[in-house]
Amino acid sequence: MLSVVPRAVVVRVPAKINLHLGVGDLRADGYHDLLTVFHAVSLTDVVRLAPAEELTVSVRGDGAAGVPADASNLAAQAAVVLARRAGIEPAVHIEIEKGIPVAGGMAGGSADAAAALLGLTRLWRLDVERSELMSIAAELGSDVPFSLQGGTAVGHGRGERLTPALSRGELHWVIAASREGLSTPAVYRELDRLHAERGSGPAELEPPDALLSALAAGDPERVAAAMRNDLQPAAISLRPALRRTLRAGIDAGALTGIVSGSGPTCVFICSDASHAIGVAAELSGAGVASAVRTASGPVAGARVDND
Ligand code: C5P
């Protein structure tokens, strides 16, 4: 069949929540050992990749001013790595439309890198095995492989080694974003500082069995009871106002709420879609977040939109 090279490729890519984030030892390479459960939700960035004279980046949407529009953007780095592998110039314009909170603990930068990898493989008609794409993704960042994969998955290592997790039905979320982001390395450093201050080490990385069986059963109340984020105390230590945000979501009737990844976005689990709409309406009125949205998961990972 004759295939036509598209003039531009558009990729849609989801945000992630960590339903469980167990943080273990600080490793010699500066990363922490993790045992995490990723869950992709229906907040998305849209990344458009178009042939250009040279590598350029533009960003629009919520929080766009906080995203670098130069070679330091993770999506631009993805283009450079992929072009080098293919022996070509990274001559592409990358246009990012943000729907994922910026520096919010929802892997927005990683999502854009995943979208660039997938879209440029298509645009440049590269023959790259999925496993190779996943390993390029892992080099770019710990969350990039999951942004490609989506769904619900257990992450090991620094988060880049994935095993799909069984989940039944949809989970419904209220997402409360903050105007000002938090730096992921700063939150991990704060966790290390809190451990040192208390003379305590990280907890053992135990398999999140209760969570995995709640997901397999599709039971939001059991999922709520089993959610855990070891980075939450560090995020709250750097941003004490998050305590109020979490309280407000629970007061608004959510089953429970946690900080997403390294924060500061807070995510609240609800029993169904209409419950989430009610919680979101009440939380919007509480004035504890810069934006409140509903979302559902799991959703697919990065996918080409203009097929
Ligand atoms: O992998 P990524 O570039 O997204 O990680 C950003 C930063 O978050 C790392 O440089 C490190 O400081 C911290 N991190 C960590 N342990 C992990 C993942 C991230 O300490 N497993």
From TrEMBL:
ATP binds at P101, V102, A103, G104, G105, M106, A107, G108, G109, S110, A111. Residues 211-286 form the GHMP kinase C-terminal domain. Gene3D superfamilies: 3.30.230.10, GHMP kinase, C-terminal domain. One of its GO terms (molecular function) is ATP binding. The keyword rRNA-binding does not apply. Residues 73-151 form the GHMP kinase N-terminal domain. It catalyses: 4-CDP-2-C-methyl-D-erythritol + ATP = 4-CDP-2-C-methyl-D-erythritol 2-phosphate + ADP + H(+). Pfam families: GHMP_kinases_C (PF08544), GHMP_kinases_N (PF00288). Keywords: ATP-binding, Isoprene biosynthesis, Kinase, Nucleotide-binding, Transferase. The active site is at K16, D143. Its EC number is 2.7.1.148. Pathway: Isoprenoid biosynthesis; isopentenyl diphosphate biosynthesis via DXP pathway; isopentenyl diphosphate from 1-deoxy-D-xylulose 5-phosphate: step 3/6. One of its GO terms (biological process) is isopentenyl diphosphate biosynthetic process, methylerythritol 4-phosphate pathway. InterPro entries: GHMP_kinase_C_dom (IPR013750), GHMP_kinase_C_sf (IPR036554), GHMP_kinase_N_dom (IPR006204), IspE (IPR004424), Ribosomal_Su5_D2-typ_SF (IPR020568), Ribsml_uS5_D2-typ_fold_subgr (IPR014721). Catalyzes the phosphorylation of the position 2 hydroxy group of 4-diphosphocytidyl-2C-methyl-D-erythritol. Belongs to the GHMP kinase family. IspE subfamily. HAMAP family: IspE. PANTHER family: 4-DIPHOSPHOCYTIDYL-2-C-METHYL-D-ERYTHRITOL KINASE, CHLOROPLASTIC (PTHR43527). This is 4-diphosphocytidyl-2-C-methyl-D-erythritol kinase. It comes from Gordonia jinhuaensis.
